Amino acid sequence: QVQLVESGGGLVQAGGSLRLSCVASGSIFRLYAMAWYRQTPGNQRDLVASITSGGSTSYKDSVKGRFTISRDNAKNTVYLQMNSLKPEDTAVYYCRETLGGTSYWGQGTQVTVSS
């Protein structure tokens, strides 16, 4: 059974930093593309950043230069380093694991950025 567990969310002041972690179990982690999404109340989940099994990354325009996605296959973990946080980054952040037509989601972690 595949399980994704996010951690690292919290309350931070604008301009601060947080690092989110997502630990995967039950899958061959190194084969999967990983991504971070975020969602605010009443809105759909938006893709924030993604990383392929080979390590190629892509980012939502509004987080380029501030957020960094990385993965440690030895630890079955994907990270999202978030710097220079802004109030508009406030959301529930979810990680997603994808291989072909199969995807799995974590339960989410709340990030709140105060102004």
Describe it.
This protein has 115 residues and is mainly beta. The protein is 0% helix and 56% strand. The chain is built from no helices and 11 strands. Strand 7 and strand 8 (77-82) form a beta hairpin.
Give a quick summary of the entry:
This protein is mostly beta strands. It is 0% helix and 56% strand.
Lay out the secondary structure.
Layout: E1 3-7, E2 10-13, E3 18-25, E4 33-39, E5 46-51, E6 57-59, E7 67-72, E8 77-82, E9 91-99, E10 102-105, E11 109-114
Features:
single chain, 115 residues, 7-stranded mixed β-sheet, 4-stranded antiparallel β-sheet
Secondary-structure element order, N to C: EEEEEEEEEEE
C-alpha Rg (nearest Å): 13 Å
Arithmetic mean of pLDDT: 97
Low-confidence residue ranges: none
Determine the N-to-C terminus distance: 40 Å
Major beta sheet summary: 7 strands, mixed
Q: Count all strands and give the number.
A: 11
Structural class: mainly beta
Proportion in β-strands: over 45%
Helical percentage: under 10%
Number of helices: 0
Q: Which shape, going by the Cα principal axes? A: globular
